[in-house]
Design brief:
This protein is of the alpha+beta class. It contains 17 helices and 18 strands. Helix 1 packs antiparallel against helix 3 and helix 14 packs antiparallel against helix 15. The longest helix has 17 residues. 47% of the residues are buried. The chain binds flavin-adenine dinucleotide. Flavin-adenine dinucleotide binds next to strand 3, helix 5, strand 10 and helix 13.
């Protein structure tokens, strides 16, 4: 049977785009989910790399005919095991479909799903525009970013992926190719299936193309690191920034010990040594004057809010180094990590969440580094390995953090998604009827449960 499927796939995409040798498929089995929580992948898989939506369609028709599961795969940078093939089947990699066309007049990129985040940033830049969002690892692909509704540090001004997407080309699990939306900015025809697909983690169809809203390039930017002696003060200032009418590109919370450690690993020096609790604020404006106005207002606020002397980075190099250190925190922690949580709470409740994390650290005598998108109330909490760790203890810790987030009116994942590893927690956040509706929708899109069959639902 396997041989027959390989031959049929070869007849659709060409023999060079079908990979079935065990050593050759290895690089497609896992994503960036920490090893202690990620599921075991099946190595009995065939990787297929279509070159068009029509080829994707024929692959799905074939998979339905033989009842073979299909695992859509983007850049493999996901953190919830959502693209891992947990049973034998076909891995559908979009990597060959990576063209991007920029329509400058409509400020719109038309991107194939396999183009990476880096490709999109570069294409926008080349056209004199920008894609200011930085919703994931730069090797993430457009299809994966949309399927995960990724967010990232710079989602404050423009919103998460969902707010930038205006149209999708989608191949349904049964093989039909449909188009949802396009270059129009307003569209009120019928139910909005496009937004249903965004964030569906590869369970409702294969995204093959997207229309993505771009922005004008900002004329001036500055990155400000604001130190505080008290964590409360650092987090209390966040809503106040917005109340004053300052809308930064990013407001990130970090702790000095951690960023200094990451910096020294990268051979870089963290620029602010004066206190433990720090905010990174990125201001990005359309003119130098507007930047100065926002900066003045922010510095005034710092003065009256218990902050120590802020560090203002204005050169590209200084700003890039701060961002690089912030972006590499995950990679540096990963070898000693059991899990990364990305709970999300109303921004003003962040302080209560962090207090609970600290209490748990003391009670369990563990180290749980915390940082994250303070402006969005979306915090990354890391469960680190410690001597004598047991799965049960980590489950208790995770449960306690999820319970607190929910009690505060928040949710268990703000951007990484449910994927495989958080399926058992779905019922914590959603009532039974809501889950039933979601399952019914999955059945309508995918009657034979062909694509990503074991993801999202418990
Ligand atoms: C260092 C690092 C930093 C990160 N930072 C952030 C961050 O700031 N914010 C954030 O939100 N995430 C972040 N992530 C997570 C990750 O980058 C995002 O979740 C990203 O959206 C995953 O994209 P991918 O192409 O790698 O998808 P994959 O990991 O390959 O797949 C993810 C999901 O998308 C599905 N999928 C992929 N392509 C398609 C397609 N064409 N059609 C349908 N379904 C598809 C898969 O089946 C799977 O369900 C980070 C990850 C790392 C390693």
């Amino acid at each position: 049977m396997r041989e027959k499927i390989v031959r049929e796939l070869e007849s659709i995409v060409g023999a060079e785009w079908v990979v079935s040798a065990e050593e050759a498929v290895e690089g497609y089995l896992y994503d960036e989910t920490p090893i202690p929580v990620r599921p075991e992948a099946s190595s009995d898989v065939i990787v297929v790399k279509p070159g068009s939506a029509e080829e994707v369609s024929r692959i799905l028709v074939l998979a339905n005919k033989h009842g073979v599961p299909v695992f859509p795969r983007g850049g493999g940078t996901g953190l919830a095991g959502a693209c891992i093939p947990t049973v034998s089947g076909i891995i559908l990699s979009l990597e060959r479909m990576n063209k991007i066309i920029v329509d400058v007049d409509n400020l719109m990129a038309e991107a194939e799903a396999g183009a990476t985040l880096r490709d999109l940033i570069d294409a926008a830049d080349k056209a004199g525009l920008s894609f200011p969002l930085h919703p994931g690892d730069e090797g993430a692909q457009i299809g994966g970013l949309i399927a995960c509704n990724a967010g990232g540090a710079r989602a404050i001004k423009t919103g998460v992926m969902r707010s930038c997407i205006k149209g999708l080309e989608l191949v349904l699990p049964t093989g039909e190719i449909i188009r949802l939306g396009g270059k129009v900015l307003k569209n009120n025809v019928g139910y909005d299936l496009m937004h249903l697909v965004i964030g569906s983690e590869g369970t409702l169809g294969i995204i093959t193309r997207a229309w993505i809203r771009l922005q004008p390039r900002s004329a001036a930017s500055a990155t400000i690191v604001i130190p505080f002696e008290r964590r409360e003060d650092a987090l209390k200032i966040v809503p106040e920034i917005f109340r004053r009418g300052i809308i930064p590109l990013a407001v990130e919370y970090v702790e000095r010990v951690l960023v200094e450690r990451v910096g020294s690993n990268l051979g870089l020096k963290w620029p602010c040594t004066s206190a433990e609790y720090q905010l990174i604020v990125i201001l990005s404006e359309n003119s130098e004057d507007a930047l100065l106005g926002a900066l003045e207002s922010l510095l005034e606020l710092c003065n009256s809010s218990g902050a120590l002397e802020p560090v203002v980075a204005e050169t590209r190099k200084e700003q890039d180094e701060i961002l690089r250190i912030r972006s590499e925190i995950y990679s540096i922690l990963k070898p000693d990590m059991v899990d990364i949580l990305d709970v999300s709470v109303p921004p003003a409740s962040l302080i209560d969440l962090i207090r609970t994390v600290n209490e748990l650290e003391i009670r369990y005598r563990v180290y749980m580094p915390v940082y994250g998108h303070a402006g969005d109330g979306n915090l990354h909490i890391h469960l680190m390995k410690w001597d004598g760790w047991t799965k049960e203890k980590y489950d208790e810790l995770r449960d306690a953090i999820y319970a607190k987030a929910i009690e505060l009116g928040g949710t268990i994942t703000g951007e990484h998604g449910i994927g495989f590893i958080r399926r058992k927690y779905l019922e914590r956040v959603l009532d039974r009827r809501t889950i039933e509706l979601m399952r019914a929708i999955k059945r309508i899109f995918d009657p034979n449960n062909i694509i990503n069959p074991d993801k999202v639902f418990p």
